[in-house]
Amino acid sequence: MARKEISKAMLKRLPVYLSYLKSLPDSGHTHISATALASALSMGEVQVRKDLATVSSGGRPKVGYLRESLVADLEEFLGYGNSNNAVIIGAGKLGMALMGYSGFAEYGLNIVAAFDTNPALVGQESSGKAILALEQLPKFCQEQNIKIGVITVPAERAQEVCDRLIEAGIAAIWNFAPTHLDVPEDILVQNENMAASLALLSKHLKEHMGKQGK
């Protein structure tokens, strides 16, 4: 199926569909409809139907989608079959935890090394992957054709690290630092804002407790 331009909002929904479909037991779940998927994920049926139609042409009236085929279509559309090498900048606790997470391979992400300025860390390994000096970043990225950089440094160092990644040829940045990054228009930045996530949880809990108190 030809790849179409999609919104960032839809791009965030598709992995949610995929994760749910993969979590279903094989027995009794050979097919799934947009209605059932929307209900299970508490999403709008119209939106889910449009999303699936963009990704797959396998839907059938009153039958839905063959689950196995829909999973394959979602993975192909999201590019999970491709292997993308990435580097981490910041070999602290978060950086090392990400280096050790084997689940990224399922999504086509391969973290090959980390970079840091701490002499005590440089030259060490974490989860079998080297921790290198930050000065080695440009040469390493060029030789290994690295296009994805993961930032796990403190906020005050994030922009400097971001600039160095871009200079090294990085095209996409996964930012775990709690700060805004200024980048050229052709560079993609995905921010993991933990403060925003906690704010949503706090607001939901406050509303939930308020209803219980009535």
UniProtKB/TrEMBL annotation:
<feature type="domain" description="CoA-binding">
    <location>
        <begin position="80"/>
        <end position="180"/>
    </location>
</feature>
<comment type="subunit">
    <text>Homodimer.</text>
</comment>
<keyword id="KW-0520">NAD</keyword>
<dbReference type="Pfam" id="PF02629">
    <property type="entry name" value="CoA_binding"/>
</dbReference>
<protein>
    <recommendedName>
        <fullName>Redox-sensing transcriptional repressor Rex</fullName>
    </recommendedName>
</protein>
<comment type="similarity">
    <text>Belongs to the transcriptional regulatory Rex family.</text>
</comment>
<dbReference type="GO" id="GO:0003677">
    <property type="term" value="F:DNA binding"/>
</dbReference>
<dbReference type="GO" id="GO:0045892">
    <property type="term" value="P:negative regulation of DNA-templated transcription"/>
</dbReference>
<keyword id="KW-0678">Repressor</keyword>
<dbReference type="InterPro" id="IPR036291">
    <property type="entry name" value="NAD(P)-bd_dom_sf"/>
</dbReference>
<dbReference type="InterPro" id="IPR036388">
    <property type="entry name" value="WH-like_DNA-bd_sf"/>
</dbReference>
<dbReference type="GO" id="GO:0003700">
    <property type="term" value="F:DNA-binding transcription factor activity"/>
</dbReference>
<keyword id="KW-0804">Transcription</keyword>
<keyword id="KW-0805">Transcription regulation</keyword>
<dbReference type="GO" id="GO:0051775">
    <property type="term" value="P:response to redox state"/>
</dbReference>
<keyword id="KW-0963">Cytoplasm</keyword>
<comment type="function">
    <text>Modulates transcription in response to changes in cellular NADH/NAD(+) redox state.</text>
</comment>
<feature type="binding site">
    <location>
        <begin position="90"/>
        <end position="95"/>
    </location>
    <ligand>
        <name>NAD(+)</name>
    </ligand>
</feature>
<dbReference type="InterPro" id="IPR003781">
    <property type="entry name" value="CoA-bd"/>
</dbReference>
<feature type="DNA-binding region" description="H-T-H motif">
    <location>
        <begin position="16"/>
        <end position="55"/>
    </location>
</feature>
<dbReference type="Pfam" id="PF06971">
    <property type="entry name" value="Put_DNA-bind_N"/>
</dbReference>
<dbReference type="InterPro" id="IPR036390">
    <property type="entry name" value="WH_DNA-bd_sf"/>
</dbReference>
<dbReference type="InterPro" id="IPR022876">
    <property type="entry name" value="Tscrpt_rep_Rex"/>
</dbReference>
<dbReference type="InterPro" id="IPR009718">
    <property type="entry name" value="Rex_DNA-bd_C_dom"/>
</dbReference>
<keyword id="KW-0238">DNA-binding</keyword>
<dbReference type="GO" id="GO:0005737">
    <property type="term" value="C:cytoplasm"/>
</dbReference>
